[in-house]
Design brief:
- It is built from nine helices and twelve strands.
- The chain folds into three domains: 58 residues, no CATH class; 188 residues, 3-Layer(aba) Sandwich (Rossmann fold); 38 residues.
- 30% of the residues are buried.
- Helix 4 packs antiparallel against helix 8 and helix 4 crosses helix 9.
- It is α/β, with parallel strands linked by helices and 310 residues long.
- The strands form four sheets. A five-stranded parallel β-sheet has the order 5-9-8-6-7, with helices on one face. Strands 10-11-12 form a three-stranded antiparallel β-sheet, with no helix packed on it. A two-stranded parallel sheet has the order 1-2.
């Protein structure tokens, strides 16, 4: 068999067990071969394709003595986005600790949280409320000098706004694209608008459970709650050079939002008591002419507490 002096692997955070076994076989067959691996464990988001983050985070255990060279400077986004997202992703102690730097200074507030009242009847009304807010944001951006590139990013394909082509037509000076949080990895733009950062089964983080059969084929993954979804959210947040607009349902905000706001004092959600079942935020809900405090993790958690009349 052919022997190798050097093996170079890019995107090492996406290494699967099958690819790892192939790599080990090549190394064993080539005594003295040097392995050079490049990757970012903070962006390991493809577990559903078989990637196993532990192969990177436990690199020395897997491959023996090694030297680690860290790239500590980013040219993708400004220092405010860097600080907020680095704190957010490193809440998971299983991630490799890094201290990154950016020479790009923020010229404006780098995050804007936009709560929408989406408890209106009918999907068409909800979509129109979001479409009008998008049109308003893009109109403000389009009034600036120079051409801009803006990404609309959603957790799923179905988060793509209705009549996307009309938004493109109305804002010809903006290069507008829609991506899912997975497909946008590796890309950069001027501004990002994150869609539907809500709680719920198809929210962000997604509460959709893996197929039990799939779990037999994949590595167990790290044990930190919503670890993979946290990395997916990190990837979405770090596509913008200058600013991220985050759209969410006021009555069902993602649990990631309060954390991102609190850690960086960017803004505040209306906070009541914690859910007695799961620890989520309790938010006001209006059901059949009555007010309740409900868990923001609905429908994953269905706690409802009646509100006393004021």
């Amino acid at each position: 068999p052919k022997k190798y002096k050097y093996i170079l692997v890019d995107e090492f955070q996406d290494m699967s067990v099958g690819r790892y076994e192939l790599l080990r076989t090549l190394l064993v067959a080539s005594p003295g071969c040097k392995l050079y691996a490049v990757g970012d464990d903070w962006q390991s988001i493809f577990r559903f394709t078989g990637s196993d983050i532990s192969i990177m985070t436990n690199f020395t255990k897997q491959f023996g003595y090694s030297y680690q060279s860290k790239i500590s400077r980013t040219y993708r986004f400004n220092s405010e986005i860097l600080g907020a997202t680095s704190t957010f992703i490193q809440q998971n102690q299983g991630q490799i600790k890094k201290e990154l730097q950016s020479d790009m200074v923020a010229s404006e507030q780098s995050f804007e949280f936009i709560g929408l009242n989406l408890r209106v009847s009918g999907r068409a009304h909800r979509e129109m409320a979001k479409w009008e807010k998008l049109d308003q944001i893009l109109s403000a951006l389009g009034s600036r000098e120079g051409d801009l590139e803006v990404f609309l990013i959603g957790r799923y394909h179905h988060n793509r706004p209705d009549d996307f082509q009309e938004l493109e037509r109305r804002h010809p000076r903006i290069k507008l694209s829609y991506f899912t949080a997975h497909s946008v990895k590796g890309l950069t733009c001027d501004y990002v608008i994150l869609m539907d950062v809500d709680s719920g089964q198809f929210g962000f983080p997604s509460e959709v459970a893996d197929d039990p059969i799939l779990n037999y084929l994949l590595h167990e993954g790290d044990s930190y709650e919503n670890a993979e979804e946290r990395r997916v959210f990190y990837v979405a947040l770090t596509r913008a050079r200058h600013k991220v607009f985050i759209l969410f349902d006021k009555l069902a905000p993602s649990k990631f939002l309060s954390e991102l706001m609190d850690e960086n004092e960017i803004g505040k959600l209306d906070k009541g008591r914690k859910c007695p079942e799961c620890g989520g935020e309790m938010v006001l809900r209006h059901i059949k002419s009555r007010n309740f405090m409900g868990c923001s993790n609905y429908p994953h958690c269905k706690v409802l507490i009646p509100q006393m009349a004021s």
